[in-house]
From TrEMBL:
Entries under PROSITE patterns matching the protein: UDPGT (PS00375)
Source organism of the structure: Brassica napus (Rape)
Keyword Hydrolase: no
Keywords from the named record: Glycosyltransferase, Transferase
Lineage, uppermost ranks: Eukaryota, Viridiplantae, Streptophyta, Embryophyta, Tracheophyta
Residue span of region Disordered: 1-34
EC numbers for this chain: 2.4.1.-
Protein's name according to its UniProt entry: Glycosyltransferase
Entry superkingdom: Eukaryota
Coiled coil: none
Length: 506
């Protein structure tokens, strides 16, 4: 097996502005896009309530995916509590009247994304140029109007999945901050693809190589982001994630939802290239430093939502560290065969389990599986699970996950070891670090078609729950839990970085 090493390359990056792809991996044939404005508050205040303040005003522009919006909301909360006025701008085909949170100095606006209200949210991702051209105009108009107010914005914090936002903000004279909601370990791979210093193989089955990146362990093709394994796979996703580096060097500052102690070697390399600061983990304060007393979830605090008591009551009836929690995120959709195999594996282990299964996926479970588990009280399948509450519960023993970055950070912050079943995008690379770098979990081994047998899933679950390696994983994740809390607590590395940004505008 050869090693694909990076070599200096002087190619100018190509500007290729393409928003998201919603076509899942071959094993995930369908998906449901959540309403990115699901956090809409139930009570509103006049948008002029905070206009009289002399605090610095920043705009926050998240990519319209819930997994990208949530970390943006969390940063907005912390900026607000440190004295800034924040305007959260959401590109949507669902117009909402502006409103200001009762809890934070955060005002939410929607801008038009070029699509009609009756069109499925997936349409914008299948017609990227329509999204880009319309959202560029809408963002330009919004910032131009906002600059005429009594407290005009001084900076734009944007998701680099939308590089056009940087161009708009620079043209209008704003300080521009790119905020990556994915880890540096994924961004570094994307960067080298954009620069041409890593060549995606023509065929992943011919002459498989190991990829060598600065500050990384060697990566097999199965460790790479899904689109980086073979040319032409996931073309829309490829353009989306790689194009974020097309103009990134023009950004005044780059933030990332991670913390220094988690990716020290990668952070050091990235810091030599760009003005980068880590400000994570962006998990609700209740589960970290508890300095924002209202911050219990990813909403803006106006909803008084309570966790699903039926799920938590069931969990409370189980012994400590005895329950296997299973969830594959809001987008991943396992094949019928894989869902049934996973169900068989979980049952085979003999552990109690809690499995979050969307309504669209429930029919893939084996006939009678849900009813038998409930009747015999060894398992619960729920369509919605309060994940943070579950991960923080004493009864939870491990987390079977797709290794999405938000889920990975949540488990890490709450000290729960992982069984990784990555599906696509950055998830395989996250899984590599989970198993071989941080040593806080184990990754299942799939066959060449991506299928994982029930024996393999069961082996991994048992290893994490009761194996000798599992004990070490639990110790390691507890250490990272402490480091995560220290980073975001008062005086921690991430907290200081946020303070330095706030000081620019106060």
């Amino acid at each position: 097996m050869g090693t694909h090493r990076l070599t200096p390359h002087c190619l100018q990056p190509t500007v290729n502005l393409t928003p998201p792809m919603t076509t899942p991996s071959p094993s995930t044939p369908s998906t449901t896009i959540k309403d990115p404005l699901r956090f809409t508050v139930s009570t509103t205040r006049s948008i002029t309530d905070f206009m009289g303040t002399t605090s610095g005003h920043v705009l926050v522009f998240p990519y319209p995916f819930q997994g990208h919006i949530n970390p943006m909301i969390q940063l907005s909360k912390r900026l607000s509590k440190k004295g800034l006025t924040v305007t959260l701008v959401i590109a949507s085909n669902n117009h909402r009247e502006p409103y200001t949170s009762d809890v934070y100095s955060i005002t939410v606006h929607t801008i038009h994304d070029g699509f009609l209200s009756h069109e499925h949210p997936q349409t914008k991702f299948n017609e990227p140029q329509r999204f880009i051209s319309s959202t560029t105009r809408s963002l330009t108009d919004f910032i131009s109007r906002d600059k005429l107010t009594s407290n005009p914005p001084k900076a734009l914090i944007y998701d680099p999945f939308m590089p056009f936002a940087l161009d708009v903000a620079k043209e209008l004279g704003l300080y521009v901050v790119a905020y990556s909601t994915q880890p540096w370990l994924a961004s570094l791979v994307y960067y080298h693809i954009n620069e041409g210093t890593y060549d995606v193989p023509d065929d992943r089955h011919e002459n498989p190589t190991l990829a060598s990146f600065p500050a990384f362990p060697l990566l097999s093709q199965n460790d790479l982001p899904s689109f980086a394994r073979e040319k032409g796979s996931y073309p829309l996703l490829f353009e989306l994630v790689v194009s974020q580096f097309s103009n990134l060097r023009r950004a005044d500052l780059i933030l990332c939802n991670t913390f220094d102690q988690l990716e020290p070697k990668v952070v050091k390399w990235m810091s030599d290239q760009w003005p980068v600061k880590n400000i994570g983990p962006m998990v609700p304060s209740k589960f970290l430093d508890n300095r924002l007393l209202e911050d219990k979830d990813y909403d803006l605090g106006d909803f008084k939502t309570e966790p699903d008591e039926s799920v938590l009551r069931w969990l409370a009836s189980k012994p400590a560290k005895s329950v296997v929690y299973v969830a594959f995120g809001t987008l991943a959709a396992l094949s019928d065969k894989q869902m049934k195999e996973t169900a068989a594996a979980i049952k085979q282990t003999g552990y109690s389990f809690l499995w979050s299964v969307r309504d669209s996926e429930r029919s893939k479970l084996p006939s009678g599986f849900v009813e038998e588990a409930l009747e015999k009280d060894y398992g619960l399948v729920a369509k919605w699970v309060p994940q943070l509450e579950v991960l923080s519960h004493d009864s939870t023993g491990c987390f079977v996950t797709h290794c999405g970055w938000n889920s990975t950070l949540e488990a890490l912050c709450l000290g729960v070891p992982l069984v990784g079943m990555p599906q696509w995008t950055d998830q395989p690379t996250n899984a590599k670090f989970i198993e071989d770098v941080w040593k806080i979990g184990v990754r299942v081994k799939a066959d060449e078609e991506g299928f994982v047998s029930k024996e393999e899933i069961a082996r991994c679950v048992v290893e994490v729950m009761d194996g000798e390696k599992g004990k070490e994983m639990r110790k390691n994740v507890e250490k990272l839990k402490v480091l995560a809390r220290e980073a975001i607590s008062e005086g921690g590395t991430s907290d200081k970085n946020i303070d330095e940004f706030v000081a620019l505008w106060t």
